Amino acid sequence: MVDCLFCKIINKEIPSQIVYEDDNLIVIKDIQPVAPTHLLAIPKQHVENVADPKFTEAGLANLFFDGIQKVAKELGLVENGFRIVANCGSEAGQTVFHLHFHIISGRPLSWPPG
Ligand code: AMP
Ligand code: ZN
User: Count of domains in the chain?
Assistant: First the structure.
């Protein structure tokens, strides 16, 4: 078993603010929000990042995006827009090596990213 922050959050060993949970994923509030809405969608299975083949095996990616769609709709993020970001690898800014998609919304977002 890897020593993983997000596995501990999923197992409720570390507290978090959960906004959505189903059999496949959990969506929590980011502890250091960069926008009025900043959530992290995290698969319950320990997958390192988008480059990890486990993400696309057994339909996990599809179930995962089902959850993101549901949350975006339920929280009213669809009308004004939202951004999902998955940092993949250290040079891309990944600091927690358990796959997570940032869901960022609630202010105008610039492009390109830093
Ligand atoms: P990344 O840098 O893309 O790997 O994103 C990791 C994210 O996890 C950062 O935005 C952190 O603010 C967030 N984070 C770290 N620890 C926690 C925690 N205990 N609860 C919620 N979010 C966290
Ligand atoms: Zn993990």
Answer: 1
Structural domain range at position 34: 5-44+59-81+88-105
Residues of the chain below pLDDT 50: none
What separation in Å is there between the alpha carbon of 114 and the centre of ligand 2?
26
Token pair belonging to 3:
């020593």
**Please, what's the b/e burial string for 58-90 (b: 16 or more CB within 10 A of its CB; e: otherwise)?**
eebbeebeebbeebbeebebeeeebeeeebeee
What pLDDT does 89 receive? 97
What is residue 1's predicted lDDT score, i.e. its pLDDT?
64
Q: What is the dihedral of CA 17, 4, 84, 80, to 10 degrees?
A: 0
Catalytic residue among 38, 46, 98, 100: 100
